[in-house]
Amino acid sequence: MHIPDGLITPEIAALMYAVSITFLAWSWRKAKATYEKSLAPLLAVSSAFTFVAQMINFPIAYGTSGHLVGGTFLAVLLGPYAAALGMTVVLLMQALFFADGGIMALGANIFNMAVIGALSFFIIKHLAKNTSRKSLLFASVFIASWLSVVLGALACALEISPAFSNVGGVTATIPAMLFWHVLIGLGEAAITTTITTQLWKLQPTALSGLNILRRGEHARLP
Amino acid sequence: MRGYLKAIIITLVCLAVLTPFASEFPDGLEKVVETFQIEEKEPIWNGLMPDYTLPTIEDKYASTLLAGVCGFFLVLITAYTIGLTATKPRGEKVNNKKHLTAQDVALVGVFCALWVVLNLYVGPLGFQLWRLPILCDFSAFFTLLLTTWATGRFGTASMVGIIGAIIVLMLRSSPHMIGFALSAILFDALMFASKHEINPKPKHLATTIFATTTSAYLAGVIIGIFFSNKTLEWATIEWALTFWGVLHLLGGILGLAITLPVIGALEKAKVRRIISA
């Protein structure tokens, strides 16, 4: 879902930079008020893991592949604010060193993957409100991670539509993007839910994001 | 910290095992672009490792794996720095020896740059002038000694060695850097004997000299055996163990002879107190 520079117009790129930077500034302020320094190693390791996971493409159908985005995964692990920052680091490194996603398009990519991924935390929060049942919690993780990919793809379809003006603009990009990403989202949801349940068993302390949900408080993290 | 180390190792093992199985098909967005046959404009920037490969390495698996490891550590260090800065300001001073501080991360960055510059420009000079590798060792150990002295902890020298070596590998095809990266890790481990202190105390001085010469020798042996374009046979190993290893050891001693006075001067000027302030 990484938009290359060749597919985005300068106006949209600038707009998305503005939106993303606003959101990141908000995350930074919230993070500074919320987290202790002990967050650093967890943030580092989980972001680096997400980078590696994004390298491993899995085939879906008809000669197309997808990979884990990991926004929801980071949100479950770290809470929404640190997740947005961690994901941004991953996207920044990909754009700077690996030509995966353009530098101009970085703002748009941060919005599609880091911002929407981090906000999917609130989907989990809403769905799993006042529940202590594990199955319900993980069902909402599944739904949130699927939604994060589909909504990201929808945003992506809108952002790249000017490049498709010859073939119909949004009427071409939205159905096509959604068709593939509904499927890729299932892979994302399956991987995210599997890793979170395994972590829940092995290292429950690492799931500070979920722990906030369970305690129903936002202020003490992690 | 143990848990995090485990997580790092598991992730890198997963990367090594799963990379060959990663799907080559276009991803969702690329497929959409293909379907509608959209002409993409040329990108303005192609990155140092386009498509997760190191251009200087031909073997596809090794190239992707190294690029992945490189990106893994880039993200790890950057996210760690952000984790330290975007969190509540710390009230009391903590035990510096336990956690990597923001200063340490910054110092690692600076010394990586020093490593890259020295190994790109000073190291090869010795080869061109005298056909000897000693300036390579000087470049490596000058940087490693200064790193350990400035940070006074385990891990920083290894980081500089590994990251620096990968950057040099990206810019120039010089596989002997892998030998120096390994010797940086050995150096870092041996320096435990002086608690990563470099000062004139006899015990610490002896440890520093021992660690430097041993790891320089190791670098020579590894480079001699694996990266000197000789066929792998007993004669090569013997040559690496004696001639090439000892040459590198001499390079290490040259490094010591230059670095220790430099450190002494810096210590006198109270540079370390300025860094840690």
Helix content of chain A: over 70%
- The overall number of domains of chain B is 2
Helix content of chain B: over 70%
Q: Supply the CATH architecture of chain A.
A: Orthogonal Bundle
What string, H for helix and E for strand, traces the elements of chain B in order?
Answer: HHHHHHHHHH
Features:
heterodimer, A: 222 residues, mainly alpha, two-stranded antiparallel sheet, 8 helices, 3% strand, B: 277 residues, Arp2/3 complex 21 kDa subunit ARPC3, 2 domains, 10 helices, 70% helix
Compact summary:
The complex is a heterodimer of chains A (222) and B (277). By secondary structure, chain A is mainly α.
Description of the molecule:
Chain A has 222 residues and is mainly alpha-helical. Chain A is built from 8 helices and 2 strands; from the N terminus they run ααββαααααα. The relative contact order of chain A is 0.16. Chain B folds into 2 domains: 1-92, no CATH class; 101-277, Arp2/3 complex 21 kDa subunit ARPC3 (Orthogonal Bundle), CATH 1.10.1760. Chain B has helices at residues 2-18, 28-35, 60-85, 102-130, 134-151, 156-171, 176-190, 202-226, 234-268, 271-276. The mean pLDDT of chain B is 82. Classes of the chains: A mainly alpha (222), B mainly alpha (277). At the A-B interface, helix 1, helix 2, strand 2, helix 4 and helix 6 of A face helix 1, helix 2 and helix 3 of B.
Task: Give the secondary structure arrangement, pairings included.
The complex is a heterodimer of chains A (222) and B (277).
Chain A: H1 10-34, H2 39-55, E1 58-61, E2 64-66, H3 71-78, H4 80-97, H5 106-127, H6 134-160, H7 170-202, H8 208-215
Antiparallel strand pairs in A: 1-2
Chain B: H1 2-18, H2 28-35, H3 60-85, H4 102-130, H5 134-151, H6 156-171, H7 176-190, H8 202-226, H9 234-268, H10 271-276
